[in-house]
Design a protein that fits this description.
Layout: H1 10-22, E1 25-31, H2 38-47, E2 50-56, H3 63-68, E3 75-80, H4 89-102, E4 107-112, E5 117-118, H5 126-135, E6 140-148, H6 162-165, E7 168-172, E8 180-184, E9 227-232, H7 236-248, H8 250-258, H9 260-264, E10 275-276
Parallel strand pairs: 1-2, 1-4, 2-3, 5-9
Antiparallel strand pairs: 4-8, 6-7, 6-8, 6-9, 7-10
Helix pairs in contact: 1-5
Amino acid sequence: MVSVGFRGSKLADLADSIILYRMRVLAIIATYNEERFIGGCLEHLFANGVDVYLCDNQSTDRTVEIASRHLGAGLRGIEQLPRDGTFRWRQILRRKEALAAELDADWYIHLDADEILLPPRSGQTLREAFAEAEVGGYNAVELAEFTFVPTREDPDHDHPDFRRTMRWYYPFSPSALHLVRGWQRQPRVDLASTGGHNVRFPDLRLSPALPVAPLSRPQPGACAAEVRAKGLRPGRGSRRLARLAGQDFRRRRRAAVADRAASCGHRRRSRSLLAANHP
């Protein structure tokens, strides 16, 4: 006997193809002096079928100059947010909320320039991953965070090829819902009340079907040794494994936090406290 489900039928494949064909994903990124990362960030998102809108907080370096090269080729626009000498994160998040209601897209991502977001499977684009979530009936996606760090054995990653050389990381997931930062178009969303960690809106349906993918992102500098990376969050079964792994890594995370100040003094943690990413 052969059982045929909708998702496995030709009709389902056609429906999925139509959704993917029309899918528009937009990352809303706020920047301040991100000239190290903005070029690579934009190129990575464009290659994954994601457009970008940039909110620059009056950078004093070449961030806007570098980003401007992509206007009309994936970068939809650049606007300047006033800076009065104080970093006003809540105001930036409120502006992102407004932009998510004004700018035309099917899915939105709240992202930083120094973060690298990867799809859950090799050979898949971010655009395809969000289309998969929509086909499944979901309207929000959680991200899994991994912190990539220099080590005592390999301390130097302040170069353009850092994504290849910076391989040592630990998972960072302090709560069950740590980063819900991708969502389907809504009349209104709330980012500010959670400090940008989790988007909120009525009838939120979180995708449980996207496995985690380790990635890498560095922030060079003596007092910026820590690096984060983000991938789409795993499903319920996988999330349990991720939480269990998090318990196993709890000692490592405590050691990493305790070592944070020491990292600013050029001390690096050992590989023995970390896991290896094999690209």
